[in-house]
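Researcher: Structure prediction, please.
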Amino acid sequence: MQRATRLVGLGVLLTSCLVACDGPAPRMHLVRAEVRAGEHVVVHLEDVPRLRGVWLTLAPPSAPASYVGDRVRVEEGATQVTVATSSPGRYEVRLHDGFPERAHHLVGRASVHVDEPAFARRDPVWFW
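Model: Predicted structure follows.
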């Protein structure tokens, strides 16, 4: 019985270390640093760790590291993720890891310019 208890304790310790121990931070780069409003920013990822919550968000450059817009969760093993845009302006794609233990652990950022949409939507003109 003692041996089983020790093995369970060792398993818990190893699992805790896999989740909490720092390894290399994930890295990213953007396919294009300029997109039109309504398009997606394509992000390539490297070194995404297993068992650590990795996520991306689109943020104004002046926003604090704790800023969360639309959170895009990175699935385990993913090498590419897209982030939606809506309004023109200058933004940063921010890469966070360690969630939920470290809710806002910012490990990477890349600037992106979101331009006006290619076709402006207008209400139809009606003539009666």
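Model: The helical segments are 2-20.
Researcher: Thanks, that helps.
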